[in-house]
Each structure stands twice: as C-alpha cells, then as structure tokens.
Design a protein that fits this description.
The structure is a homodimer of 322-residue chains. Chain A is mainly α. Chain A has one domain: Orthogonal Bundle (Farnesyl Diphosphate Synthase), CATH 1.10.600.10. Chain A has 14 helices and two strands; from the N terminus they run ααααββαααααααααα. In chain A, strands 1-2 form a two-stranded antiparallel ribbon. In chain A, a hairpin with a 2-residue loop joins β1 and β2. The radius of gyration of chain A is 19 Å and the shape is globular. Chains A and B meet through α2, α4, α5, α6 and α7 of A and α2, α4, α5, α6 and α7 of B.
Chain lengths: 322, 322
C-alpha cells in the first residue's frame, strides 16, 4: 500500500518559516565566521570576515534559502520515509545548499551597490558594504562570498561527493554569465534603452530568475522525483522568479524607502526599463497575479504530494509589501 | 611484476609545454565563448563575454594549468596504464580543471587591477579590463569568470560527479577567504605597514600560494596515490607557491615594465611590503633557490615515479625573467 497521499493539511506558513529562518540565520552566522583563516596578528582577514558578515547577516527575507528548504521537504516527502528532523544529516545538507544560494545573492547585492554599478548607499535599512568598508573591502567581500558559497556545498563530511557536484553545477550555472551575472550585464547596458517586454523578461529571467529557480532545483536535487515533476518544479521556479521581479518593479514605484529598506524609485529614477515602465502599473499587477497562478498550477499538476510550503512561498512573493 | 619504474628519462619541457599550452588556449577559447547565453538581440551579454575573453585570452604564462596537467600526468603514471592521449576523457577532464584554475587567476587579476584596488592600467602588455570595458564591465566579468570556473568543473557528462565535488572543494577553498581573497585582504591592509617575514609569508601563502598549491592538488585528485605522496605534493606546491612570489618581488625591482608586461616597481612604489623590502635583494635570491630545492626534494622523496614535468615547472618558476 502506498502510504504517500496528497496532503491537503493546511500549513501554518508563518510557523514553518520561523523555524527554518532561525536555523538559516544560525547556520549563516556559523559558516561565515567559520570561513576565517587561522589566527593572523594584523587583522586584515578579520576585516574581510567582518565585511562578509555585514553583507550577509541581520537582514534579508531569505526567500532563496526558504525555497531550497521547501523543495527539499517536497522531494523528501516523496520518499515515503518519516520527515527528517533539523538535526539529521539530510537537513544539514539542505541547509548548506540554502545558505550557499543566499551567499551568492548577498555577494551580488554587495557588488551591485558599488559606485561603478548602482552606486547605492542604503540596503536592508543599513549603509551598503562599500560605504562601511570601502570599495576594495566590498569588492573582496563579494568575491570571497561567492567562493564561500561553493565551499559550503563541498564539506569534508556529511554530504555525498556526487551530491556536492550536482549542487555546484546548478549554482554555478545560475550565478554565471548565462544566469545572474549575464542578467546584470544586460541590466547595465539597458539604462536609457527602450526594451520590449520580451527583452525585459529575458533580462530578469537571468538576473533574478535563474537564482530563484536554482534554489528550487537545488532543493529538489536532494530527492529522486520523476521527470514530469522535475519539469513542473522548473516551471514553478521560472514563474515565481519572474513574479518576484514584477512585484519588485511595482514596489519600486508604490512603496517608500523606509518600507523597502533600500532606495525606492531608484530604477525608475535611473531610467532603467521596468515592468511598470513597459506594461504600466495596472497590467503589471495583473501580470504578477497571472504568474502566481502559473506557479500554483505547476505545483498542482506536478504529481508531488506535499507542496504547501512551495505554494505558501509563491503567495508570499506576490503579496509581499517589501 | 611491477612495470612502473622510476623514470629518469629527460623531459623536453619546452615541447611538453608547447603541446599542453596549445590545448589549454583552445579549451579556454571554446569554454569562455561557450558560456554565452542564448542569442539576445541587444548585445549586453555579448559585451560581457567579450570582457571575459579579453581577460583570459592571448596572454598569461598559464603556469597554473601546466601545474594541474603535470600533476595529472604524475598520478596517471602511477596507475600503470598507458598514458592517456589528449583526446581521452581523462585528459579532457584534467583540461577542465586546468582551465578552471586559470579562470580564477584571471578574475583575480581583473578585480585586483581595478581603481579601488591597485588601480593598474597595464596587464600582460595590454590595457587592463576596466580601462577597456569600464569598471562595471570589469567587475561583472570577474564575477562571471569565478562562476565559470565552477561551471567548467561540473559538466553534464565526461567527469564523474564525485570527482566534480572533489575538484570544486579544492578550488573553492583556494579561492576564498582562507585562500586567495583572504590574502588579497591582508595585502590591501598592509600598504605602509611594516610586516615581518612571517607575516609576509602568511600573506603570500594565501594570496598566491593557495591557488598554485591547489593547482597541483587538483591535478593529483585525478589519481589514487598514497598519503605520503599526497603530502609530498602539498609540500611541493607550498614551496613553489612561495617561490613564485619571492621571484615576483625580485622581478618587480630588477625588470622593466616592457619585460614584465605589467607595471614594474609598483609594489615597491606603493609602499607595499615585499620580500626584497623585508629580506633585501641578495637574501631574496638565495631564498628563492632554497625554496626550489625544497620543492625538488619533496618530489624526490614522494615515491612518485614520473615527476619530470613538475620538476621542470619548479625550475621555470624560479628562473623566469617575467
């Protein structure tokens, strides 16, 4: 008898998030400190670690880690074995993947805020890393955070080597020139350029979508699921990746800096193409809803039994106010 | 009968290098272009790829790739099977590792040359990347090259996943805060600071030594060799890593910019501590020789049968003129 039935039990997303978020914060804290080299008596790496910690800790919605953990839960439930407790090797491995994605995200913000890029002074309600640690400090902190992401995915023990390879593959592709960095390059070249909707979508598919989708697929890499379910999760990831950006563009014109924790209106002010500038506000709001539906339909048709957390996160992405 | 005898046959290092270098250049060319995303009609990623290519191609001694390939040959010879031809899966995998290390090295130069770091305008005899592509272009090209290094190590086919994990582990640690990026942070904080020899060695052990040593160990990761041989290769890597920097410091004061292909005397002029400033020129030259001997002794005592290429590269590191 197959004991795996589709679970319709309501999930208390708030409680679910609280538990995972606390563990993500603790893990990030321990792993970013843990990256310090051996004692040195003139303090430079200590300053590097400080800048890395500043970039990563005490802020951020941690959406990417939550997506990794939600997808991990979904594929774990398919195995039919009891849920893995947070202390289990499987959870700890998933936590590494969750934190690795967040480190890539954090490094991209550090570099993106630098004077030669967006030249932004406010992030998560605090001075940006280059304001606090100087430009060279921000450059190196970002570089070191990217390397640390791959360090987290390749521990000496506790994660099979083959799994390490799979996770590094997903993360490297999402971060590089055919993912996040490629999208940022398009973004950079798009200031003052009139993009059509297709071009805008392509830019965001790379710039933010690739890493959000990779978060889902890295979580899914912890289990064996059928090919159609894999594709459904990819569709889910693509839809919420795009929805995230559409909502970002909406909030950029409708929210203030205090709510956002970053400079509001900066994309519109910098003459960057946004969904609001291309589609208008009303159609952008409708488009975000449409993408949410696409994400939920993908989950529904995936054949996967336990997708409540992924559903909840999709709703959160579209309904957030910051 | 063990047919594996210690080979004393002289190696024509020039011929050995010529063959491998041609394959490294072709592979870098194909893999950096290959990282381009799908066709886009407004050219930004094309510009990113251009900047990445500019940073990587047509220059550089390729010492790190050669170390990977030499160590790969050494451990392959231990297996007792016939040498793997360049078309073999094993050679192609080693070539990936060789190019991955070079990409990390290339990205570090791009970021290191930026105005907020060394502010250098000349590299490998050409304008630096930020001079040619702007600061934002250089920042993104460096970021994307780091990600591409991990992409090269994690192909869909042709390399066992477990091996991918091992190689990513070695590279991530060598590149990050307890390796290259950490050493750069110490370097940055050391301008105008009087370091003693121990502190200087620690800085260079991280800044350049970690990646050179990782090159050797990544090549060695393609075979199974006894623990003492592993340690001997680590010692070899540490010795040539340090020797490389000592010779760099010597050349910084004895060679001119045209020979170096980069700005000569810049470290001394920037009031950065160097081996020459700490030990004096004569003792620095003697120290480089001492490190060469350490490297050769380590190989000799490794019990490994075929180490001529590694020996030749150690000699080259110390006797080079640029």
């Amino acid at each position: 008898m197959d004991t795996r039935v589709k679970s319709d039990a309501a999930l208390d997303l708030g409680a679910w998030m609280t538990g995972h978020l606390a563990r993500v914060e603790r893990a990030l804290e321990s792993w970013v400190i843990g990256s310090a080299p051996n004692q040195l008596d003139h303090g430079a790496p200590a300053k590097l670690i400080q800048a890395m910690r500043y970039a990563v800790l005490d802020g951020g919605k941690r959406l990417r880690p939550l997506l990794v953990l939600a997808a991990w839960e979904t594929v774990s439930a398919e195995s039919g074995t009891p849920p893995c407790p947070p202390g289990s090797e499987s959870y700890q491995a998933a936590l590494r993947a969750a934190c690795a994605v967040e480190l890539i995200h954090a490094y991209s913000l550090v570099h993106d805020d630098m004077p030669c890029m967006d030249n932004d002074v406010l992030r998560r309600g605090k001075p940006t890393v280059h304001v606090k640690f100087g430009e060279a400090g921000a450059l190196l902190a970002g570089d070191a955070l990217q390397a640390l992401a791959f360090e987290l995915l390749t521990p000496e023990a506790g994660m099979p080597l083959a799994q390490q390879g799979s996770l590094c593959r997903l993360l490297a592709r999402a971060a590089g020139s055919s993912g996040m960095a490629g999208g940022q390059a398009i973004d950079l070249a798009s200031v003052g350029v009139a993009l059509n909707e297709l071009q805008l979508r392509q830019m965001h598919r790379l710039k933010t979508g690739a890493l959000l989708q990779a978060s889902v697929m890295m979580g899914a890499a912890f289990g064996e699921i059928p090919e159609p379910a894999q594709r459904a999760l990819q569709d889910y990831g693509a839809a919420i990746g795009l929805a995230f950006q559409v909502v970002d563009d909406i909030l950029d014109v409708t929210a203030d800096s205090a709510t956002l924790g970053k400079t509001a209106g900066k994309d519109a002010n910098h003459d960057k193409p946004t969904y609001v500038s291309v589609l208008g506000l009303e159609r952008s709001i409708a488009y975000a809803q449409e993408l949410l539906q696409q994400a939920l339909v993908a989950l529904d048709q995936s054949g996967l039994r336990q997708t409540q957390a992924l559903q909840g996160l999709a709703n959160m992405v579209v309904r957030r106010s910051s």
